[in-house]
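Folds vary. Our protein:
___
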Amino acid sequence: MKDFYTTTEVARLLGLHANTMKNWVREGKIPSFRTIGGHYRIKSDELVRALRDRNIPVPEELATAKKMIFIVHPDEKVRGRMSEEICSECKVDVCQFGCGVDALLALPENRPSAMIWNAGIDGIKTSLVSEAIERNEKTRGINVLAFFMSDESIDIEKIDLEKSAQLYRYPQNLGEITEAVRQLKD
């Protein structure tokens, strides 16, 4: 599977006329960007998401797309271990961030299926992250898989999670986090 497609390639995959696909792109039905030469390009993951949002069958070539997962934790070793475990068990691409703000800034350009977020870092409440993601049309539907380190003394009752967030204890429940990533539809 390719990372980017032309409008002609997408039209062929969907059995549509190339002009129909160009119209869909111009109307914003399919997210795209323009090359320096002015040609439209469509990211495969955004195409799959747009087709699913419109209940259009996803062609087999596109259905094998990898999910993008953001892992946010200040400790590079923790991020690396989580990334290795998840990638060994699931068909995903992972972007690692040492800071939650960096991950949030990367959202508009790289829409992940999920963010694995440490509920105890950055002084940013996981509920605020989840709420902000759901409020924004471009990020709505991103799953927040929040976790806390097993040696942290976090009062679980004070972690107010939105319905789109799930909470796990790391590292004991790394298998549960991996299973949650495996179950993601997007």
Notes: Residues 4-63 form a domain with the Multidrug-efflux Transporter Regulator; Chain: A; Domain 2 fold (CATH 1.10.1660.10). The CA atoms of residues 1 and 64 lie 7 Å apart. The two ends are 16 Å apart (CA to CA).
